Amino acid sequence: MDMSSYLAVGGWFIQVIFDKYLSYQLQSWAADCGISHEMNRLRVALLRTQSVLHGAEVTPSLSYGSLPWMRELRDVMYHAEDLLDKLEYNRLHHQMQESSSTESNSSPISAFMHSRFRNQGAQASGLEPHWDRSTRVKNQMVNLLERLEQVASGVSEALSLPRKPRHSRYSIMTSSVAHGEIFGRESEIQQLVSTLLSSQVDGDNPVSVASIVGVGGVGKTALAQHVYNNTRVAQYFDMRMWICVTDAFDESRITREMLESVSSSRFRHDSITNFNRLQVALRARLVSKRFLLVLDDVWSNDKITLAIEHENWQKLLSPLKAAANGSKILLTTRSSMVAEMLQSAHITNLECLSDKDCWSLIKMIVFDDTNHLINSQLANIGSEIAKTLNGLPLAAKVVARQLKCKHTTDEWKQVLQRNAVWDEIMPIFQHSYENLPVHLQQCLAYCSIFPKDWEFEAEQLILMWMAQGYVYPDGCRRMEDIGKQYVDELCSRSFFAIQKKQFVSYYVMPPVIHKLAKSVSAEECFRIGGDEQRRIPSSVRHLSIHLDSLSMLDETIPYMNLRTLIFFTSRMVAPINISIPQVVLDNLQSLRVLDLSPCKIDRLPDSIRQCVHLRYLNISSTAINMLPEYLGKLYHLQVLNLSGCRLEKLPSSINNLVSLRHLTAANQILSTITDIGSLRYLQRLPIFKVTSEETNSIIQLGYLQELRGSLHIRNLENIDAPDEAKEAMLLVAMLGSSFHHLVSFHLSGLFGCSV
Length: 755
Description:
Elements: H1 3-21, H2 24-32, H3 36-57, H4 67-103, H5 108-115, H6 135-159, H7 186-196, E1 207-213, H8 220-228, H9 231-236, E2 239-246, H10 251-261, H11 266-270, H12 275-286, E3 291-298, H13 303-317, E4 327-333, H14 336-341, E5 346-349, H15 355-367, H16 376-387, H17 393-404, H18 409-418, H19 421-434, H20 438-446, H21 458-468, H22 479-492, E6 497-501, E7 504-508, H23 511-520, E8 525-528, E9 542-546, E10 564-568, H24 582-585, E11 593-595, E12 616-618, E13 639-641, E14 662-664, H25 667-670, E15 687-689, E16 709-714, H26 722-738, E17 742-750, E18 753-754
Parallel strand pairs: 1-4, 1-5, 2-3, 3-4, 8-9, 9-10, 10-11, 11-12, 12-13, 13-14, 15-16, 16-17
Antiparallel strand pairs: 6-7, 17-18
Helix pairs in contact: 1-3, 1-4, 3-6, 4-6, 10-12, 15-16, 15-17, 16-18, 17-19, 19-23, 21-22
């Protein structure tokens, strides 16, 4: 992670702490616990640190001597979040006890009506806050404050040191083609040429847009250059313009360059500084002319910026409407959102090349001929080199330049072994990463814990992001929907690719993006297994382990700092009998995500009771047949996946999980939950069986206002008491209008019939 990323993430982290933990509720609780003074000091210290980071972000150059202090600040932020999260845990613990005693005196129907308007924060649990009032907690806060103030001072001092200028690493591309032939793009060339030569017009607008979308280095510009210089295309258009846009949108520069492309008098245009005058001059040049305009490397950082830029682009391109029918704009971009913003009629999604085409491109550059006869040893080495390039033409060109001056097998082997091509091209992908909003940077970096080419479902990943606090609430939409927007944005920028299998959509990171994610997250994310040879960093926070590599776990790993622990195995392999080292299990106090699904364990480790920060627990397909009662004390738990387990029932304490949003288990297991109305954030409940017991009364459903999907209410005939039946009928009528998130709603046993 470079300096600018540290600054952005540091500011984001502080804002998250403010929004999540320094609320009125927690401040009030802190006052009851006798630590309000320390909480106020923490607020002031965070504000001061945030001010320092914001000042550094707007500086055009950065001090790299401050990196050690930024790493230290990151660790302090983690510590602060853990301490405040534990304080929030105890507040929930206490509040749940108070809520339970208060609501036990109200009638079910009135409690339901009250629940529809009550403060969402008043859903918690608790014990008396003995430890909160202790000197130990106050000492922890004081130690945290001293460390934060010291680090903030160090960051401020380091940022005032002489700074290293940041130079642009990106060359401006032109319409000239470096190598006349491109490989593996025959169908794309044919489609694009056909699109550009089409005279079809959309409404009154004489100009139509075509886009080439793909990840950096995949050959978008090379393809555009090839089509731009196609003989038929050159003859078809009266005027052609090539503009390199990059990520610095400058409407005056772009307009002036368009004007210079269609005019012979450059001096006069350089003297025009007024944007409106530039547009008038451009319009005059384009009247009744058929043009081709290539906008190369168009960017947009986020949806808000995109909305603003949409109007800017419409204004910028308005003079083009004076042109003749059949005029075309061809843009290259890494973001499908940009292509949609400019209303592209044709979008070419550019995929990576095959290994064979990569090798052909290398031979063309090295030997100026794909049919050049080379000895079999060089050919074999070259083919192996091509396989390491992840199908990227840019990587093939870089490695070809390295091979061009090398003639022996030993020299080619050195190129293969060093694999230094990525050192040269990774800054291009780093630039794409740095242009992401900070929350998307966090989400993408986290994905490095998955194995290369791993296919995952969006919901699985979103729930992990939520557990880590990466999904930022907006006060209107539910967290899962915001997380889906994050996935869609990363897809639109070519960081994720979609693969459909049997009507199910999976997501996968392109190999080069997986390399990028590993690079930017190297200090915090680590995967044990496969071809990973690095030492585990002491700063690791997120760890995934292939079950074949359990022997690599030892006491040197700082398990107490882990926020993610995921076990992997091959997809088609059944759960494996393993013994997780006790040194791991005994030191997971900071854990947010735990996935034990590939492990053939028959009981949940007792040490999980200390994981008070845990939000995501997946023990699906394990041999566990009984869950401990202490599970109900994991008040922050949002996701509990029990599918495929051998459970006969759930612990009675399950209804204490007041933060639970996703509970996946067999229907017969779900139907054993009593007082399910306590799980007010629950998103899905396929079936609910009514009994004569109050704890399984239909009134319980009145609290579950967040339910999605389908709900089947069975055994309504078990409502016996006249008063309860009257309340039930009223509730059923209310459910029809209140459960507006449900796709289907089915009743059975109501007066002997089904609805």
